[in-house]
Specification:
It is built from nine helices and 18 strands. With 367 residues, it is α+β, with helices and mostly antiparallel strands. It binds zinc ion (ZN) (3 copies).
Length: 367
C-alpha cells in the first residue's frame, strides 16, 4: 500500500466490502464503478470492457485492443489484458473468473454481456456490484468533496444569473430557456449538460417536466432544475422564480417550502437517518397544509452519477456519515395550477451539514 493513493485506498475498501458481502469476484463494465476505482471509463460499445477483480487475486482489465491506448495503466491497481478482433472476450473473462462462485456485476453492464457470461459461467450466483460499491462510493473523500463543491459553485453562478434577471423568461419558450441554462453551465466550466428542466405556469406542477414549446407568460411560477458534469462530478440545483408578484397563496406556499427545505438541510447531521431528513421536510410541508402535494422523496446522493446512494427517502434507515453528499429538494405541486421546488447539494460533515449551493432561496420576481 505504498503512498496509499485515493484509488488504492478505494481498492482496499472494495476488497474489505467484498469480503463482508461474500462476493468472490467483482466484474465492472459500463457505469461509474470502474472509473471510480481505476480512472478508466468503459466505452458504451458492443466490444466488451470488463475489470475482473477476484477477492483472492489481482485485478485484470479486459479491454478491446483498440481502446487499450486510452487506458492509463496503474500496475498497483490492475493488469491490462487487451483482446484482439476475433478473440472472444467473454471466454477471457470466464477464464479469469475461474471457479469462483459468487459474482457481482456492474449495475449498468449490458444484458448482452451478462447473458453471455451467464451461459459461459453456469451455476454461479449473480448480483449487482452496487451492493458492494454503492455504500463506498456514497462516502466521498476530500478530493471528491472538493470536486462537488467546484461543480456546485459553477451551477450556483448560473442560478445567480437566473435570480438576478439576466436570463429573460417572459415571451420565450421553455425549450429556449432550457438551452440557455445549458449553455451557461458549459460557460461556467461544465464539460457536459445532463438536464435543464424548465417548467412554467401549470407545468411547474410537474416535477420532471420536459421543457417544450410553451411560451412563458407574466405572473407565473417557473421551476428551473439543471445540472451537468465537470471533471467527472455532477451538479444539480433547483430554483423557482416568478415572472410577476405572487398571489398571497403562492407566497404562503413558497414560505412553507423554504422553511421545509432549510429545516431538512439543518437536520442532515452525521448520525441522522436518511429517512429522518425526509421526514423533517415532509412534516413541515404537511403542517402547512400541503402534505399531499409533496409527491417525491426529499433527495438523492450525487457524485460521479446524478442519482446514487444515499437516497433521502422514507424507509432508508441508514445514518448519515461524514462524506455523504446528497440533494435536499422538497417540492409542493398543485396539479394543473403551479408548483415550486428548492434544491441544494449538501455534504454531511463532522462539523454539521455543509450546503454546496449558496444561491439565494428567497422568493424572487424576475421579468
Ligand atoms: Zn428529480
Ligand atoms: Zn435537480
Ligand atoms: Zn436532484
Amino acid at each position: 500500500m505504498s503512498g496509499a493513493s485515493p484509488r488504492l485506498q478505494r481498492l482496499a475498501r472494495v476488497r474489505a466490502a467484498m469480503d463482508g458481502a461474500g462476493v468472490d469476484a467483482l466484474l465492472l463494465s459500463l457505469g461509474a464503478d470502474l472509473p471510480w476505482l481505476t480512472g478508466y471509463e468503459a466505452m458504451p460499445l458492443e466490444r466488451l470492457t470488463m475489470l475482473v477483480l477476484p477477492a483472492d487475486a489481482d485485478a485484470v482489465l479486459v479491454v478491446p485492443e483498440l481502446e487499450a491506448p486510452r487506458v492509463e495503466e496503474d500496475p498497483e491497481l490492475f493488469a491490462l489484458r487487451p483482446w484482439a478482433e476475433g478473440d472472444d472476450p467473454v471466454s477471457v473473462v470466464a477464464d479469469l473468473v475461474g471457479g469462483r462462485r459468487r459474482l457481482a456485476v456492474s449495475d449498468r453492464a449490458w444484458a448482452t454481456f451478462l447473458v453471455s457470461l451467464q451461459s459461459a459461467l453456469p451455476g454461479r450466483s449473480w448480483e449487482v456490484s452496487s451492493r458492494v460499491t454503492g455504500p463506498l462510493r456514497a462516502v466521498k473523500d476530500r478530493a471528491e468533496v472538493e470536486a462537488l463543491a467546484a461543480v456546485s459553485a459553477a451551477a450556483d453562478r448560473v442560478a445567480a444569473a437566473l435570480l438576478g434577471g439576466e436570463i429573460a423568461l417572459v415571451g420565450r419558450s421553455e425549450r429556449d430557456v432550457s438551452d440557455e441554462l445549458g449553455r451557461r453551465l458549459v460557460a461556467e466550466g461544465h464539460d457536459r449538460v445532463n438536464f435543464a428542466i424548465v417548467g412554467s405556469g401549470p407545468n411547474s406542477a410537474s416535477p420532471h417536466h420536459e421543457p417544450g414549446a410553451r411560451v412563458i407568460g407574466p405572473g407565473e411560477a417557473v421551476v428551473c432544475d439543471f445540472g451537468g458534469t465537470m471533471a467527472g462530478y455532477c451538479s444539480d440545483i433547483t430554483r423557482t422564480v416568478l415572472t410577476g408578484d405572487p398571489s398571497p397563496e403562492l407566497a404562503e406556499l413558497y414560505a412553507v417550502l423554504q422553511e421545509a427545505q432549510a429545516s431538512a438541510v439543518a437536520a442532515a447531521t452525521v448520525g441522522t437517518a436518511c429517512e429522518d431528513v425526509d421526514r423533517v421536510a415532509r412534516e413541515r410541508i404537511a403542517a402547512g397544509g400541503y402534505g399531499d402535494a409533496f409527491i417525491h422523496r426529499t433527495g438523492h446522493g450525487i457524485g460521479l452519477e446524478e442519482h446514487e446512494d444515499p437516497y433521502i427517502v422514507a424507509g432508508n434507515r441508514q445514518g448519515l456519515v461524514a462524506g455523504h453528499a446528497f440533494s435536499v429538494e422538497p417540492g409542493i405541486y398543485l396539479s394543473g395550477r403551479y408548483g415550486a421546488r428548492i434544491e441544494d447539494i449538501v455534504v454531511a460533515t463532522d462539523s454539521g451539514p455543509r450546503p454546496l449551493n449558496l444561491a439565494s432561496h428567497d422568493l424572487t420576481v424576475v421579468a
